[in-house]
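Dear support,

I submitted the protein below through the web form. The confirmation email said the job was done, but the results page showed an empty box. After a refresh the structure appeared. I'm attaching both so you can tell me whether what I see now is the final result or a partial one.
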Amino acid sequence: MTSCSDNSTSTSPARSKAASAASSAASAASSAVASLASQGASALASASAEARRRLDEVKDGIDAKNEVSLGSPASAGDGRITVPVTVHNTADSAKSFVVQVSLHDKAGNLLDTIVVTVDDVAAGKDGSGTARSNRKLSEPVRAEVARALRY
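What the results page shows now:
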């Protein structure tokens, strides 16, 4: 039996071009992943700032986190996640609610945050709304009430 091997230490031009192309492709892929992560972080920061702004606009709001329940997160068909939001007005007059819903992955990382307003809920009654993610997210997603104000 005989075998052939290339014991030379010099690289052929074709091999050099292939290695260079592979290195460029890997670098481009790494840059694309970093860019997507940066865009996701930027979108999350923007959504968080908007949620904070909307909640800060509420004057004389009462903490109502215990008056809010969430349904199960589901895909809306367009890649976004929707979550049913139900509020119960325990006040003796009609009130409105602003609810911040946070979406997390299974590891607990914050993926998105949404603010839902449920207006004019009669005294002692329930009102409902739907939280819809600001961007496309992959399931499974866990939803939680981050903040809720009744006013």
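Response: this is the final, complete result; the empty box was a page-load delay. Confidence is low (pLDDT under 50) at residues 1-11, 15-38.
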